[in-house]
Amino acid sequence: MSLLGRLRELLAGLGGAARASSVELIAWEHRELEHLFALLVLGPAAGIPSPASVATLELLPELERELVVLLSRARESGDALAELVSTFDVT
Amino acid sequence: MAGPARVLLTGKGGTGKTTAAAALALGLAGRGVPVLVASLDPAHNLGDVLGVPLADEPREAVPGVLAVEVDLAKLLRRRLAATRQALEERYRYLAAANLDPLLRLVGEAPGAEEQAAAEALARLHREAGRKGRLLVVDLPPSGQAWRILALPAATADWLASLAALRRKILDRRATLRHVLGEETPARPPGGGEPLPSAEEGDPVSARLAEALELHRELARALADPAGTRVLAVAAPGDLPLLEAKRLAARLAEKGIPLAGLVVNRVPEGTAAPAGDRLPARLRELPRAVLPELPAEPRGATALAPLAPPLLELVGAP
């Protein structure tokens, strides 16, 4: 393979890696935003007063996913180090 | 229609808010203005004063007057029951999770009753507008009333923030779907149809927008001095007047002007508290002075003498 070909391959590999890591970052941000949303809507359950808990109550039937994410997050919260290591993909 | 679209009455407990609300409603109907009169005071006696049994759905108490006693506790219970039923129907993966404690917490949380009252007020406001009726509301005593009147704006702000956060989530989902296609993490647990990634087709955004609109409409209406008259009802004596003064200050903080003062039960032959006998904040307010009647007025005939000063105060047509 010519030098130029190798260089192209290398660049493509680097580009792919950068893309994968930005996608991971967006996925992580998406998950965190979902946590935040669920926490704000379900604030009273965590002792956070909400000025509109009665108004947001009707969102609850549509928030199954957010609740699952939140509950799994609560389960994993005891292992913060593992969460951090997996977030930054440390091996 | 000239004059206001809403009149809200509050004041110290026992000063005759309900009596004034009922007399005003009857007076307006007597002038051919269709009225929806509602009591949001948990200690209802609007039906007793009008002399007609009322329920939590509006009914015609006298010709031209629709009246309702809103049962806040029942309203909250109904909301919680509807949510519980919707949860049972929709949740597949959380069927085992017990969300009852959460629902109970929301229902019993401090402020839940004020929130229910603010929402009931927003719905009454919408209903009166739709039916082309002037809305007269007998609010709870001032301590609770000013919190209820401050809530629509606060609730609208809160819901607008939630809607903005929701848009961010949908935006990230759309990006992920664009890059990853079917591999997107924005899938419901256990697979199934992908989650919505645009406001159209997102039921959470739709519900948020609906609730936001409801509260925003009322918040705007309350801050509009041409359409809304908030009246403080007081009896002669320092304490009710001091409470009216505090009410005026607290409402002013929230951008809701107090439009007038009703001094109720002024004995015949005595001068109503006026000028320098009134707290400074109340001195400039338009006033209606209602006479003390020989007996507690109940029913249209007994209430009639109280109507004219109230009609003048609110600028009724």
> Which segments of chain B are poorly predicted (pLDDT under 50) over 5 or more consecutive residues?
none
How would you describe the shape of chain A? elongated
Q: What does the average pLDDT of chain A come to?
A: 77
| CATH superfamily heading of chain B | P-loop containing nucleotide triphosphate hydrolases
Q: State the end-to-end CA separation of chain A.
A: 32 Å
What is the level 1 CATH name of chain B? Alpha Beta
What does this structure look like?
- The complex is a heterodimer of chains A (91) and B (317).
- Chain A has helices at 3-41, 53-56, 64-76, 80-87.
- Chain A is an all-alpha fold and 91 residues long.
- The mean pLDDT of chain A is 77.
- Helices cover 70% and strands 0% of the residues of chain A.
- With 317 residues, chain B is α/β, with parallel strands linked by helices.
- Chain B is built from 11 helices and 8 strands.
- Chain B has helices at 17-30, 46-50, 72-90, 100-108, 112-131, 142-180, 203-222, 238-253, 280-283, 300-303, 307-314; strands at residues 6-11, 35-39, 59-62, 65-69, 134-138, 228-234, 258-266, 287-291.
- In chain B, strands 3-4-2-5-1-6-7-8 form an 8-stranded mixed sheet, with helices on both faces.
- The radius of gyration of chain B is 23 Å and the shape is elongated.
- The relative contact order of chain B is 0.18.
What topology does this entry show?
The complex is a heterodimer of chains A (91) and B (317).
Chain A: H1 3-41, H2 53-56, H3 64-76, H4 80-87
Chain B: E1 6-11, H1 17-30, E2 35-39, H2 46-50, E3 59-62, E4 65-69, H3 72-90, H4 100-108, H5 112-131, E5 134-138, H6 142-180, H7 203-222, E6 228-234, H8 238-253, E7 258-266, H9 280-283, E8 287-291, H10 300-303, H11 307-314
Helix pairs in contact in B: 1-11, 3-4, 3-5, 5-6, 5-7, 6-7, 6-8
